[in-house]
Amino acid sequence: MGKKEDDNEEVESLSSSSDDEDGNEEAEKCIKHYSSSQRILLVGEGDFSFSLSLAKAFGSAQNMVATSLDTQESLARKYSNGIENVRQLEARSCLVLHGVDATQMSQHFFLRTQRFDRIIYNFPHVGFRYKEDSYCQIQLNKRLVKGFMKNAKRLLKEEKGEIHISHKDGDPYNKWDLVKKAEKIGLVLRDSVAFCKDDYPGYQNKRAHGCCPDGTFPLGDCTTFKFGIKRLNS
After folding, report:
1. What is the pLDDT of residues 70-83, one digit of tens each?
2. Do 230 and 13 touch, CB atoms closer than 8 A?
3. Whole-number Å distance between alpha carbons of 206 and 225
4. Omega of the bond leading into 124 within 30 degrees of 0 (cis)
5. Which of 21, 20, 121 has its CA nearest to residue 29?
6. Considering only CA atoms, which of 149, 125, 122 is closest in space to residue 48?
7. 52-65, pLDDT tens digit by residue?
């Protein structure tokens, strides 16, 4: 499940980046690449456990919008902890939106009015319509990622905003051509780092599709790709 790190890393990653000098301002809180000072949009959530992991690290989720393609009814049907995770997110002031299509989200009545510092999509996948390594399956997944990137670009803060896609390494996943897809729509790769599930306490990567949507799937080695909007002079 990614590259294992020492248990102490979890403690180190949940850090405060500033001193609470006068006690009037709450210190910024961070977990890995994400900060309580960032406006964060999460896309394609399964049981919302990743969103909840960030919210718990921040202490509040008022800087977060968490979305899922599932309706509230399908969320309850597919995931044993889905409704409870949403309840905990909303208790921490997170806005949770159901029925949000990643390939059309820039037209969403609320999201189209917003701009975000970070837009996160972990392990995008259309579901198993064909064999994972078949041409047809790969093309469907590439279409999903391209649609997401186009929409995310419209919702991103131009100067320092980043789109994060966590993705499995190796064949056939490298055939999705994430970096090439991004470049064609005006994005540029700023960084790529190893993704480790253990960095996000409580996160469960759900299958989401098929007969066992509440089950997890093996991750192996994974990477988080960080894209930004390409500047005209770069």
Report:
1. 999 999 999 998 99
2. no
3. 20
4. no
5. 20
6. 122
7. 999 999 999 999 99
Report the 10 Å Cβ neighbour count for 1. Answer: 15
The model carries a pTM of 0.87
SS3 (DSSP) at 190 = strand
Q: Which of 209, 207, 227 is nearest to 217 (CA)?
A: 207
List the chain residues with pLDDT less than 70. 1-25, 210, 233-234
The three-state DSSP-derived secondary structure of 85-147 is HHHHHHHCCCEEEECCCCCCHHHCCCHHHCCECEEEEECCCCCCCCCCCCHHHHHHHHHHHHH
Q: Nearest to residue 222, comparing CAs of 184, 145, 169?
A: 169
Calpha distance 230→227 (Å, rounded): 9
